[in-house]
Amino acid sequence: MFVKCNLHSSTCALAALCALPVVGFAGTAQNVTNATQEAIATAISSASSGDWLVLPAGTFTFSSQIQTDKNIGLVGDDGGGTILNKNAACRFFDFTGSFGGDEGIKYITFNGGDLAINGSGGAIYCGSFTGGIESSTFTNNKSNSNVGGAIYCSSFAGNILHSTFSGNEAVGPGGAIYCGSFAGSILHSTFSDNKAIWGGAIYCSSFAGNILHSTFSGNEAAGLGGAIYCSNNFTGNILHSTFSGNSADSWGGAIYCNSSFTGGIFHSTFSGNSAYYVGGAIYCDGEFGGAIESSTFTNNKSNNSDGGAIFCGTFAGNILHSTFSGNEAYDGGGGAIYCYYDGNFTDLGGTYFLSNRANGLGGAIFFNYNGSLCATSGDVVFQGNNIKRPEEPSEENSADQLIRLITEMAGGSYTSGQEDFVANAAHFQVGNGGGGNVASIGAMDGNTLYFYDPISSDTERRNLKIEINPVEDHTGTVLFNRHRSDVYFEGTGYAKISYGTMVLQNGASFGAEDNTGTFT
Q1: pLDDT value at residue 131
Q2: pLDDT, mean of residues 28-42
Q3: In degrees, to the nearest 5, what angle opens at C-alpha 128 toward C-alphas 76 and 21?
Q4: Cα torsion at 153, 204, 194, 127 (round to 10°)?
Q5: β 386-388/421-423 pair status
Q6: Which of 15, 200, 327, 364 is the most exposed place for a label (fewest CB within 10 A)?
Q7: Contacts of 107 (CB under 8 A, 6+ apart)
Q8: How do beta strands 328-329 and 357-358 pair?
């Protein structure tokens, strides 16, 4: 059996989502005669690997776990009345080998599994999880001494469909699921209010699956990855899904990726996620090389450092027909996005950066080294972004001094400690490269890159190389409105326009007041 879907996306990789297998049946059914733990144990003893148990409606009360090395599936009453509960501190099942076969879990509620002893998987422990989970619920399961509040497995290759994971908790990683590699897909499912030290909902070594029409909300991590922690690469796609109100006490309010993020985010929403340090919605330690299309990042927040919505090592993806609004780096840079190294935004279109805020530098985007912004597939707008003063600084530090300089050059006034702000779209820090970094700003034919907020650059290393429409097919328009852009291109630095048009309107100017470089 397969899921039928009709996806509208220019990304060919998503076509695979149209043929996702759902839980199917290939073995022999073993009927459980009554709603007791003993009846399940008896049926398992008669079953062979590849079979599945058919459980009647009713509440099954467990006083200890059932352990088996058989690879079987579990199917409950399709009316949803099959409930597994417990009257002692125990998980429900310990599958010492693989679990699920082609059958998996269907129509069952796992409630209150409580692993108080040493071990992992509050409800289920298994080697590899080969089946799927369909129309089932995992709620209030706990691993009090280790990982995987609801499920522990070495690898997860099944699909999760029309299911709910809520209120599960692990003292270690993986509030709902802990696995090595996650290669399945999550469809029409909900992960809410799960908690763990890393990966409030899911902890995995790599994520190669897809998340479709699903919701992750209110999940919490005491450390990294409020909803999902991925210790290596995230190569899956997120489509028509919502991540909201997830939080991490360290990095990655919704998603923490310890390596590269090369998947895609399509028609999805990240809202109200928060991290105590960096990456209010997403933290990516390596390269963010994926696509963001027709999606929204709104009101995400990094509370004590950088990247209100996204923090990445480098950015090399595309952002099309999407909006970043109201995101905040409360005590750092990059209200929407912070690039620790290079930020190559060379494929932007139909994208808006609106009312993002940084307490440091880069109201919308912060570039620590080289940076490029190019409108290739539609107009791009920066408007209402700003940098905010600290509320109660003990003294005016170097960041305050730079904000003061940018504020005064833009025609404002600055008093350290006041709740006030100044417009700023992007900041180019010029890193530590010594030879100066490159800021490339452009638009392709028929497109306009609108800066209703100014840009700025490092006041100490003033040898920034600014290139406006540097490529032959960049014949569009770069427009600056109203403000002075406080950029420095002195010494070995320069500012030049090669193709297309640059517009300064309503009193806008380009170059810091004390900049000694020449614009050509």
Answers
A1: 84
A2: 94
A3: 60
A4: 0
A5: antiparallel
A6: 15
A7: 75, 76, 77, 78, 79, 80, 82, 134, 135, 136
A8: parallel
CA-based diameter of the chain, in Å?
A: 87
Whether the CB-CB separation of 298 and 271 falls below 8 Å is answered with yes
Contact 410, 387 (CB under 8 A): no
At 276-293, the pLDDT tens digits run 999 999 999 999 999 999
Residue 28 burial (CB count, 10 A):
10
Rounded Cα distance, 212 and 452, in Å? 36
Do the Cβ atoms of 375 and 345 come closer than 8 Å?
no
What's the CA gap between 316 and 289, in Å, rounded?
5
**Which of 188-214 are b and which e, b meaning 16 or more Cβ less than 10 Å from the residue's Cβ?**
bbbbbbbbbbbbbbbbbbbbbbbbbbb
Least Cα distance to 298 among 265, 327, 268 occurs for: 327
Closest Cα partner for 423 from 345, 484, 495?
484
Of 393 and 382, the one with more pLDDT:
382
Tokens 């299309």 belong to residue: 293
> Do 243 and 275 contact (CB within 8 A), yes or no?
no
